[in-house]
């Protein structure tokens, strides 16, 4: 914009010099045209700046760590004229690790139905919050910067990559499997509900599903003692957190595939115990969303103790290995 202002100033001085040293209508018309151009450009661009609306969204709501995804800047409300260059200042903040990066982005030629994109930082897992700052529009000549209503902040969850089986602690399901077969005292050790995406196939009640013509699944009742407990250290560097959460994801998935209800526990930054019950893969994603949205502590905290009588307990420390 500064370069264009310099060029316009030079053109204005040239037109003014011609008007002073040349006595004729051509010099007058040229000077009037040079003076009127910025006003005309501003008049054409003002309605666009007032009516333009944009939306900031992630291309994938829950990407995996390391996956190549983008933030999308999409025009949601058309203006009389397509906007010229849009300049957006924003910051991308990882709520888990506390890291952030400022960004200044420029898009040219965005119109209704079109979108610009920029890469999301998925190097570490966490809840990424994209906070929009100022959004400005350049007029047709690029001499004026007009404010535009900024888009709402948005968020994406960068889920951990599942840990390799070789990095997982041993998973002895003998005790948990025995607990799985115990009756709850109501004549059955499960509750019935409609199938939801992510439910294990082995939990489907095929006989009842054929009678009702919809998929019905057996769900372990949430009340009572958990059949397994997974605890972990919500502390450490971003690399340590990636490793811990990857192991947590893999272990919890292994329990779900065996139909074992379990709880996930950790201490937050202030040392307050946090517990979430996981009965399906949807619960696991919701639980992971809570974990990724809270800042991690800097120093290791005292591991949580499982409820008395828990058949299986695995603790995942921020260092190497795991404790059973």
- Count of extended strands: 14
Overall geometry: elongated
Number of domains: 2
For this structure, what is the CATH class of the largest domain? Answer: Mainly Beta
Number of helices: 6
Structure description:
The protein is elongated and about 100 Å long. With 324 residues, it is of the alpha+beta class. The protein contains six helices and 14 strands. 28% of the residues are buried. Strands 3, 4, 6, 7 and 8 form a five-stranded antiparallel beta sheet that branches. The chain has a four-stranded mixed beta sheet with strand order 13-12-11-14, with helices on one face. It has a three-stranded antiparallel beta sheet with strand order 1-2-5, with no helix packed on it. It has two domains: 159 residues, Immunoglobulin-like (Sandwich); 152 residues, no CATH class. About 3% of the residues have low confidence.
Features:
324 residues, alpha+beta, 2 domains, five-stranded antiparallel beta sheet, four-stranded mixed beta sheet, elongated
Which SSEs are present, and which pair or pack?
Elements: H1 2-21, H2 25-51, E1 53-58, E2 70-77, E3 85-94, E4 100-108, E5 115-119, E6 126-138, E7 145-148, E8 154-158, H3 174-180, E9 191-194, H4 206-212, E10 216-219, E11 228-232, H5 238-257, E12 262-267, E13 273-278, H6 281-292, E14 312-316
Parallel strand pairs: 11-12, 11-14
Antiparallel strand pairs: 1-2, 2-5, 3-4, 3-6, 6-7, 6-8, 9-10, 12-13
Helix pairs in contact: 1-2
């Amino acid at each position: 914009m500064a370069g264009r202002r310099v060029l316009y100033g030079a053109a204005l001085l040239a037109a003014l010099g011609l008007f002073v040293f040349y006595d004729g209508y051509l010099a007058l018309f040229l000077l009037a045209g040079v003076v009127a151009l910025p006003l005309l450009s501003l008049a054409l661009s003002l309605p666009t700046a007032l009516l333009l609306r944009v939306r900031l969204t992630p291309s994938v709501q829950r990407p995996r760590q390391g996956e190549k995804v983008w933030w999308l800047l999409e025009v949601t409300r058309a203006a009389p004229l397509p906007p010229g260059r849009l300049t957006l200042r924003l910051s991308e903040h990882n709520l888990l690790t506390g890291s952030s990066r400022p960004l200044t982005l420029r898009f040219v030629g965005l119109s209704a139905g079109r979108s610009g994109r920029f890469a999301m930082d998925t190097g570490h897992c966490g809840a990424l919050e994209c906070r929009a700052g100022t959004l400005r529009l350049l007029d047709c000549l690029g001499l004026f910067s007009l404010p535009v209503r900024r888009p709402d902040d948005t968020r994406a969850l960068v889920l951990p990559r599942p840990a390799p089986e070789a990095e997982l602690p041993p998973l002895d399901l003998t005790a948990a499997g025995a607990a799985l077969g115990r009756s709850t005292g109501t004549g059955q050790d499960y509750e019935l509900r409609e199938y939801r995406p992510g439910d294990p196939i082995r939990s489907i009640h095929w006989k009842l599903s054929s009678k009702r013509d919809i998929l019905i699944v057996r769900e372990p009742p949430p009340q009572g003692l958990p059949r397994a407990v997974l605890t972990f250290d919500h502390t450490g560097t971003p690399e340590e957190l990636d490793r811990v959460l990857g192991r947590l994801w893999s272990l919890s998935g292994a329990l779900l595939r065996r139909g074992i209800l379990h709880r996930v526990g950790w201490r937050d930054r202030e040392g307050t115990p946090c517990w979430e019950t996981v009965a399906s893969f949807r619960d696991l994603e919701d639980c992971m969303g809570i974990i990724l949205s809270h800042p991690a502590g800097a120093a290791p905290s005292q591991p949580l103790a499982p409820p008395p009588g828990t058949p299986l307990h695995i603790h995942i420390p921020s260092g190497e290995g795991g404790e059973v």
